[in-house]
Every structure is written in C-alpha cells, then in structure tokens.
Amino acid sequence: MEDAYSKSGWQRPGSGVGPPIFIHYHESAYLMDALQRHGMEVLLHVNKDYQGSDGVTAQDLILVAKLVRKNAPS
User: Fold this and answer.
1) Which of 66, 61, 74 shows the shortest CA–CA distance to 40?
2) SS3 sequence, the chain?
3) What is the Cα–Cα distance from 63 to 32, expressed in whole angstroms?
4) CA distance 3 to 25
5) Digit-coded pLDDT (tens) for 25-43
6) Which of 2, 3, 6, 46 has the smallest number of Cβ neighbours within 10 A?
C-alpha cells in the first residue's frame, strides 16, 4: 500500500470481521530508489485505488523490476 510510512500499523478489516492485520505503508519514490541502487530496473510502476468496505480509499502500489546489475552493493 502506498502512503506515508508513519501510517503503518495494526488495522481491523473494514467489515469488522476477522483479526487485525499489520499494514506496512511505503512511498514509491523510496522503493524505486532502493531498487535502482541495488541493481534493479523498474519496468512497471502502477498505483491503483482500492475502495475498502469501510468506504476509505487506499492506494495499492505495484512495482515490477528486474535485476540488471549483479554486483549491486550489499
């Protein structure tokens, strides 16, 4: 999910049914930079709105990358 990292935390499903889950939010610029620094090329970057059952819209982040440099820093 894309949003400020500081919003990460335990959340209950919008339906109120089921156990809470930990949602880890990330910012796409940070992830894309990290992938590129470690020898990956980002092939696809998509943001997709997701409407929760509680009416709150979140944004799914989809990144597809491939390794282009095997001697990336560790």
Assistant:
1) 66
2) CECCHHHCEEECCCCCCCCCEEECCECHHHHHHHHHHCCEEEEEEEEEEEECCCCCEEEEEEEEEEECCCCCCC
3) 8
4) 5
5) 999 999 999 999 999 999 9
6) 6
